[in-house]
Specification:
The chain is α+β, with helices and mostly antiparallel strands and 385 residues long. It has eight helices and 13 strands. Helix 1 packs across helix 6. The longest helix is centred in the middle third of the chain and has 33 residues. It is a multi-pass membrane protein.
């Protein structure tokens, strides 16, 4: 009988996720690290609306209609809901390749490229897939060690690949991608309506009070109104312009990243394979399509070895349990997968009486790992994008 100083420490997966994101509420809230501009957005929206409710709404409810402050409150809560939904959600971050997956992809690329003479640049790491009868190139990400799905891109600020990457918006403190683009668009649209609404009734309030008190006296009595007019005036152009630009993108089923790079309007004049050539269908797909679940499994559990003492009898026969985890990869629409996923590497222990034959996977041999180097989590199965 003997004792082994080993214990399992259970943690959430979000605590070990790579990248430059921050998590709150036990992984339920996911944002970028740079959140200063997001706090400024909250301050401007909440501050302007508080001034409107304090100075204009009491007067307008009496002299015009009590529905004015009611509609303003409903619009304000909708704007805040869309902002928080955009800022606190996973935009569509793709998981990075596990070490064995990355090793296999590297070997596969080297075998395909062959021996490159010294001094010559190796060919680009790309794969071709067919989408709507058109060839689309999948680029290799050197940071995440994966071939990015169509329309995905690596965000340099968050240091993660995001599916259907649109852009990184500091005003919402997060990336805008496949899972939160519709909420971002609804946020900009509702914020434009709220800004126009407040700006219009600020002018109405000043005009109504100027009839009895005079224009100069009205400005002296309502300094909050003057501040609101200035904030709304400078905000109106940027917010309404941003909403118009994204409306144009929604009608064409494009992203900001594709529009800036000219992916579908360059010299080659390649048609957008994701557009339905119908603005109604494009709007329905972007704004009314299904909300895809996150592939990160942020709140999943994972076990780690700790130094806390645990009494285990017969330490010679002690072998840590292996838990197989999967890296869930998003499906590529209309893609014909070139090859099936490769099986995981096999492990053997010293106590095995008969040697096990590892499966033949092209040039990749079986790997023998002694029990002392086994971890609690077995390598994940590879899924080819």
């Amino acid at each position: 009988m003997s004792a082994v100083m080993v214990a399992k420490k259970v943690t959430r997966k979000w605590e070990k996720l790579p990248g430059k994101n921050t998590f709150c509420c036990d992984g339920r809230v996911m944002m970028a690290r740079q959140k200063g501009v997001f706090y400024l957005t909250l301050f401007l929206i909440i501050g302007t609306c508080c001034l409107f409710f304090a100075f204009e709404c009491p007067y307008l409810a009496v002299h015009l209609s009590p529905a004015i402050p009611v509609f303003a409150i409903v619009l304000f809560f909708f704007v805040m809901a869309m902002l928080l939904r955009t800022s606190f959600s996973d935009p569509g971050v793709l998981p990075r390749a596990q070490p064995d997956e990355a090793m296999y992809i590297e070997m596969e690329i080297e075998a395909a490229n062959g021996n490159v003479p010294s001094g010559q640049r190796p060919p680009p790491r790309i794969r071709n897939v067919q989408i709507n009868n058109q060839i689309v190139k999948l680029k290799y990400c050197y940071t995440c060690k994966i071939f990015r799905p169509p329309r995905a891109s690596h965000c340099g600020i968050c240091d993660n690949c995001v599916e259907r990457f649109d852009h990184h918006c500091p005003w919402v403190g997060n990336c805008v991608g496949k899972r939160n683009y519709r909420y971002f668009y609804l946020f900009t649209l509702s914020l434009s309506l709220l800004t126009i609404y407040i700006f219009t009734f600020d002018i109405v309030h000043v005009v109504l009070r100027s009839v009895s008190d005079g224009f100069v006296q009205t400005l002296k009595e309502t300094p909050g109104t003057v501040l609101e007019v200035l904030v709304c005036f400078f905000t109106l152009w940027s917010v309404v312009g941003l909403t118009g630009f994204h409306t144009y993108l929604v009608l064409l089923n494009q992203t900001t990243n594709e529009d800036i790079k000219g992916s579908w309007s360059g010299k080659n004049r390649v048609q957008n394979p994701y557009s339905h050539r119908n603005i109604v269908k494009n709007c329905c797909e972007v704004l009314c399509g299904p909300v895809y679940p996150s592939v990160l499994d942020r709140r999943g559990l994972m076990a780690e070895l700790s130094s806390s003492p645990v009494m285990i009898s017969d330490a010679k026969n002690y072998i840590p349990d292996l838990q197989t985890t999967k890296t869930t990869a998003p499906l590529i629409p209309n893609e014909q997968t070139p090859e099936e996923a490769k099986p995981p590497l096999q492990y053997r222990t010293e106590e095995a009486t008969e040697p096990k034959q590892s499966p033949t996977v092209q040039e990749l041999p079986a790997v023998d790992i002694p029990p002392a180097s086994l971890t609690d989590t077995a390598p994940a199965k590879e899924q080819v994008f």
